[in-house]
Task: inverse folding
């Protein structure tokens, strides 16, 4: 198993946000995480990427059999975990290409590979630019500074394509994208799909899943996965909304409590 | 920002000072203390003409009437001017070495360790160096090559011997000895420094640079630099500085004067890395420096670029007097204060000629308990029809125990003038750090990348070799074990 999350509990400022997540992702799979706003989707993504400010109060996460939660964020990145941010961050004065190069070389160094020389690096980046249909001039602009919402999301996918992660986590990469951008971004992700690689695709809408077809769909609500299924679950959610599932979950929980 | 990441950033800021070693050489120093005899002694040692001794003595007598300035946003223990030695020089076999072979190998080694090899075949191509060790210049490279173009590049002492008429004409013409307390002191006791003269119409074919090194303990360093760019000439000049780590504070009070005649351009770049003191604020250089340039003719241009990472205290306002019509003044500055460092730095742009233009870009970075003040004056005289100034002042705070302060002074006496001022203050955010670390960068590289990005507009003004150096230096200044 590439990623195994077992009974994960996470609090933020003393408030429980994730309340027992179990999830196993095998290499080659795409899992979609859906759920209403505030259900804990970004929290899960951030905890996996190692962001500070989250307190793990229970459970464990194994990545390639190793205790992920013990690894500092940069090591997770170098070990192949990539998070496409819901809100990509601006870094004024630092050009996109400079960050890309530093990132690629940090990963290569970690793997004992020599730094890419300027020519090979540029060749790699140009190839990936075509994939997300971005103009080369983006490389020389400051990271995310003055980018439109859609450009920021595309830039995240560009970075992911260049870094070729083992586990790609996309946090609402589809939100704020028009239909053309959505298709481009999805094609970018699809082209990265491979038997060694897995994706966790966090989304609010089933729309994205028409393009990136998931192997499994999980519904997160109130910090728990309340339902898992195949892609038809996403279609059902599209049709019926989350309400019925939440009601069912509430009934299930009440019954559970009554029984204990 | 959460307290743990706060802690991380602070750990990052524990700096390493690579230039902090001491060179064991036999020194010749005069005993501590300042009086007219000491000044006569310095002047005699340098075999100076009468006009210069007179000038020094006038400066000294004037200095006695002055008080140390107190208006800067810095705090320090009173300086005992009688406890300082005003002259220190490595002992030489002869008066002055004629070639590098006669220079003490220990001195050459010192500069090599600092990354400034003085043997020409090992040097950076295209950079001529004047190396000043404590009070004297130990070597100047590429002199002959420059002389072919009529360019004079030598130590100040040599210029006094060989070109006294130029020295007499321009010394004190931009910064008179009455200018301020530290300039008066410097004028009285200055020991050495660099001298440059570029003849009319000559474009200096290489970068000129001076590397200042304080080595001796309990001494002050008072160097004096004078650069004259004659009509239509161009010169780019670089200045670097380091000092050993010592627990006592050491005084450095330099004066730099630039004169650009009609159509001439001087680009003056500094990477200042004097010892900043330790984490508790022990030791470090007190850097009280007067730097000023005069654009004396039409379309003259003077551009100051400084990267200030060192010193316990920095008090420095490289300025431009825009006398000639259409002359241009520029000031690009990065000042970093970490631990207990304090900087009060900025510029003065004095517009006198018509259609004169000035640009000020100041980037202040404060970390630890560092205090960073920008102080700038833009003065538009009545005569300065159509003058324009643009000022941009950005502060970056790292952590929450440091401070950034901005003191802009604007005096406009001509209604056709346009003066623009923009200021921002920002913090390195946890979001930025996490974003970069999620891309595989170590925390310290992430901080360094954010800081370098913040300084980009200034770094692009530096000559190539220096830009790389400056980036590394900022990296080192912010470096440390991740806590
Ligand atoms: N840094 C934080 N401080 C306080 N509460 C937070 C923080 N981050 C997330 N939360 C809370 O955790 C819950 C889940 O948020 P989030 O993971 O962003 O949900 P989603 O991505 O599913 O919309 C929300 O109630 C949100 O307010
Ligand atoms: Mg979210």
Result:
């Amino acid at each position: 198993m590439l990623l195994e999350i077992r009974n994960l509990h996470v609090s933020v400022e003393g408030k429980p946000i994730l309340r027992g997540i179990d999830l196993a992702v095998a290499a080659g799979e795409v899992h979609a995480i859906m759920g209403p706003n505030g259900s804990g989707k970004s929290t899960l993504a951030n905890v996996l990427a190692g962001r500070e400010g989250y307190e793990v109060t229970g459970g464990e996460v194994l990545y390639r059999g190793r205790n992920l939660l013990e690894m500092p964020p940069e090591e997770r990145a170098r070990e192949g975990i990539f998070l496409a941010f819901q809100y990509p961050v601006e870094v004024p004065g630092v050009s996109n290409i400079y960050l890309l190069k530093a990132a690629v070389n940090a990963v290569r160094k970690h793997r004992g590979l020599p730094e890419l020389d300027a020519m090979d690096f540029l060749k790699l980046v140009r190839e990936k630019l075509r994939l997300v249909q971005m103009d080369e001039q983006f490389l020389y602009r400051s990271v995310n500074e003055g980018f439109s919402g859609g450009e920021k999301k595309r830039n995240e996918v560009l970075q992911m394509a260049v870094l070729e992660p083992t586990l790609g986590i996309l946090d609402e990469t589809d939100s704020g994208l028009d239909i053309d951008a959505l298709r481009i971004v999805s094609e970018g992700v699809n082209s990265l799909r491979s038997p060694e690689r897995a994706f966790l695709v966090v989304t609010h809408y089933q729309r994205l899943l028409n393009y990136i077809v998931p192997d499994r769909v999980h519904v997160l609500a109130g910090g728990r996965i309340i339902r898992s299924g195949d892609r038809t679950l996403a279609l059902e959610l599209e049709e019926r909304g989350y309400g019925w599932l939440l009601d069912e979950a509430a009934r299930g929980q009440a019954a559970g409590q009554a029984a204990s | 920002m959460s307290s743990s990441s706060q802690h991380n950033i602070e750990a990052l800021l524990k700096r390493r000072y690579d230039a902090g070693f001491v060179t064991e050489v036999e020194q010749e120093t005069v005993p501590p203390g300042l009086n007219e005899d000491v000044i006569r002694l310095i002047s005699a040692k340098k075999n100076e003409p009468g006009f210069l001794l007179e000038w020094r003595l006038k400066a000294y007598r004037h200095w006695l009437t002055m008080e140390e300035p107190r208006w800067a946003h810095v705090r320090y223990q009173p300086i005992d001017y009688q406890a300082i030695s005003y002259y220190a020089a490595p002992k030489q076999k002869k008066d002055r070495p004629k070639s590098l072979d006669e220079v003490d190998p220990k001195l050459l080694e010192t500069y090599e360790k600092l990354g400034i090899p003085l043997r020409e075949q090992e040097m950076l191509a295209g950079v001529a160096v004047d190396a000043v060790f404590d009070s004297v210049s130990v070597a100047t490279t590429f002199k002959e090559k420059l002389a072919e173009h009529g360019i004079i590049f030598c130590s100040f002492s040599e210029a006094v011997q060989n070109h006294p008429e130029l020295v007499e004409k321009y010394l004190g013409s931009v910064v008179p000895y009455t200018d301020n307390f530290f300039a008066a002191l410097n004028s009285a006791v200055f020991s050495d420094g660099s001298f440059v003269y570029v003849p009319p119409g000559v474009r200096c074919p290489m970068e000129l640079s001076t590397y200042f090194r304080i080595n001796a303990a309990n001494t002050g360093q008072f160097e004096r630099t004078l650069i004259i760019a004659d009509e239509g000439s161009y010169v780019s000049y670089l200045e670097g500085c380091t000092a050993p780590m010592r627990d006592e504070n050491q005084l450095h009070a330099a004066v730099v004067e630039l004169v650009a005649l009609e159509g001439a351009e001087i680009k003056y770049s500094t990477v200042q890395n004097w010892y900043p003191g330790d984490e508790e604020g022990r030791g470090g250089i007190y850097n009280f420096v007067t730097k000023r340039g005069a654009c004396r003719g039409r379309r003259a241009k003077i551009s100051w670029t400084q990267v200030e990472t060192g010193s316990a205290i920095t008090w420095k306002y490289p300025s431009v007097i825009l006398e000639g019509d259409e002359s241009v003044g520029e000031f690009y500055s990065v000042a970093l204060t970490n631990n207990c460092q304090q900087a009060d730095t900025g510029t003065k742009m004095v517009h006198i000629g018509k259609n004169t233009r000035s640009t000020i870009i100041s980037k202040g970075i404060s970390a630890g308990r560092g205090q960073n003040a920008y102080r700038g004056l833009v003065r538009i005289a009545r005569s300065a029809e159509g003058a324009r100034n643009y000022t941009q002042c950005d502060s970056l705070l790292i952590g929450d125990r440091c401070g950034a302060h901005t003191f802009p002074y604007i005096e406009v006496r001509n209604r056709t003038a346009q003066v623009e001022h923009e200021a921002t203050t920002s913090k390195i955010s946890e979001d930025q750090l996490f974003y970069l670390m999620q891309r595989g960068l170590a925390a310290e590289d992430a901080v360094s990348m954010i800081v370098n990005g913040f300084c980009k507009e200034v770094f692009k003004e530096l000559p190539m070799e220096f830009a790389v150096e400056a980036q590394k230096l900022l990296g080192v200044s912010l470096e440390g074990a991740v806590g």
